[in-house]
Amino acid sequence: MTATAPNPSPRRRRRWLRLLLWLPVLFVAATVVQVAVLRFVDPPTSAFMLARQAEAWRQGDRDYRVAYDWRDLEHIAPALPLSVIAAEDQNFASHHGFDLDAIGKAMDNNARGRRVRGASTISQQVAKNLFLWQGRSWVRKGLEAWYTVLIEAMWPKRRILEVYVNIAEFGDGIYGAQAAARSYWRKDASRLSASECARLAVVLPSPRRYSAVRPGPYVQRRAAWVQRQVRQLGGRAYLEGLD
Fold first, then answer.
1. Hey, is 129 helix, strand or coil?
2. Which residues of 202-235 are buried (b: 16+ CB within 10 A; e: fewer)?
3. Contact 200, 159 (CB under 8 A)
4. Between the chain's N and C termini, which has fewer beta carbons within 10 Å?
């Protein structure tokens, strides 16, 4: 005859129930504090950088190093944030984190078996790259949406843009405007030319596939288009109009 394990006491069950009820509150509080702090403190790294470093180590590349050097937005050539907006998210100034028109077009094109570029906003990309892991699960998508809401609610647009151009991957292990400018052209991010900025913006979706310093025909054509779009946005005056 085997002995049966005693049932948990009612007090222990109530304790676990209270803990489960408090978990959502603790999660909300922790993420709000996290985003609030980074409104003022420049992030020393990002979840994407840490994941890329871990990936390299798992593959046996112990010499792999991330190139990352923060620069405030006023110390980056204005053509770079403008080029990023032109290439990635032309409704950046007017949306609240989600471009519903772009999402609708993406869904329509996916239904037809085609893919569309630009459904993910700059705010969503900041949320994903700064805080989350890579993947396509519904859990990660939900967390991305939550962080996007927090970022849009707590950061001004200029801060969102500043963080993005500093943590975006412009090449394998090369993160941010300053690291890209130094790695590719041996200059400071403030001295990037309009054409260099356009090429950096173009490679963002696939920085390990396309090269900003050795652009192929696609990058050259797309970069020329980006430069035209920057002029239509209004140039430096567009940035000055961001809150």
1. helix
2. bbbeebeebebeebeeebeebbeebbebbeebee
3. no
4. N
The 10 Å Cβ neighbour count of residue 88 is 21
d(CA 165, CA 177): 6
- Give the CA distances from residue 150 to residues 85, 101, 176, in Å, rounded to whole numbers and listed in that order: 20, 21, 22
87-130 pLDDT per residue, tens: 999 999 999 888 777 666 666 666 566 555 547 899 999 999 99
- What is the domain partition of the chain in residue ranges? 46-91+98-240
Q: 123-150: string of b/e by CB count within 10 Å (b at 16+)? A: bbbbbbbbbbeeeeeeeeeebbebbbbb
Q: Which CATH number fits domain 46-91+98-240: 3.40.50.720, 1.10.3290.10, 2.70.98.10, 1.10.3810.10?
A: 1.10.3810.10
Please write the tens of the pLDDT for every residue from 59-91: 888 888 899 999 999 999 999 999 999 999 999
Whether the predicted model's global pTM rises above the 0.70 cut: yes
